[in-house]
């Protein structure tokens, strides 16, 4: 039996309304939080991203590779330490490779901190753009609910070549926001299990739901756990 711990981006000080609303969607369809590909840390990201989603079960001659034309990149605990707006030093080489493979508007940072209503005047988003050279989406709805804003961004930039959400990969550390959004929009999700530094979760907050895969292959939203950071 396999189990996956799901981190929920909910805190006492600031509620992710989109995340809270969409938990009901997850209760009826737990597979929404399952990633298409899992890596430990950002520096293990396969480039080009299409490599991550090849279905090897049928053999290469029967495989139709996904056509990934653009990448949505989370920030906190993905390529950056939370609350910082710079690339974690050990990841600069991989970040440069990603920018080279997906230049200009083909790479888009979508954070639930920088570029949202939690970021007054989007000052953090501007700093992040200066530090990374990558555009940061300004979005009214937090992940996982901002897929329409993401697709509007790509479709309004023909140079990305994106005409369908299946041409987009979403990379992030949160199953309930990044990966769930990828599944909701019909994209591909890459889950980064471990951030650049240990994440102790949210002090006193609801931190985990366990998704269990049974022998029959079905998925069940199994339990919630409370984790208290030291
Ligand atoms: Mg994150």
UniProtKB/TrEMBL annotation:
UniProt superkingdom: Eukaryota
InterPro entries reported in the protein's UniProt record: HAD-like_sf, HAD_sf, PGP_Pase, PGPP1/Gep4
Name of protein: HAD-superfamily phosphatase
């Amino acid at each position: 039996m396999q189990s996956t711990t799901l981190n929920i981006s909910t805190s006492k000080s600031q509620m992710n309304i989109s995340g809270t609303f969409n938990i009901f969607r997850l209760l009826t369809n737990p597979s929404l939080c399952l990633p298409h590909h899992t890596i430990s840390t950002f520096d293990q990201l396969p480039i080009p991203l299409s490599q991550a989603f090849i279905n090897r079960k049928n053999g290469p001659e029967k495989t139709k590779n996904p056509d990934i034309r653009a990448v949505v990149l989370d920030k906190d605990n993905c390529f950056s330490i939370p609350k910082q707006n710079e690339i974690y030093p050990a990841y600069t080489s991989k970040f440069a490779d990603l920018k080279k493979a997906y230049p200009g508007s083909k790479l888009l940072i979508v954070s639930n901190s920088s570029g949202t209503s939690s970021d007054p005047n989007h000052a953090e988003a501007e700093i992040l753009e200066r530090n990374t050279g990558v555009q940061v989406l300004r979005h009214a709805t937090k992940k996982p609910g901002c897929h329409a804003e993401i697709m509007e961004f790509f479709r309004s930039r023909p140079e990305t070549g994106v005409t369908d959400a299946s041409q987009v990969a979403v990379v992030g550390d949160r199953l309930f926001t990044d990966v769930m959004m990828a599944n909701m929009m019909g994209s591909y999700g890459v889950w980064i299990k471990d951030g650049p530094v240990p994440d102790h979760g949210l002090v006193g907050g609801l931190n985990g739901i366990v998704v269990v895969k049974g022998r029959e292959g079905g998925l069940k939203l199994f339990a919630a756990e409370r984790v208290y950071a030291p």
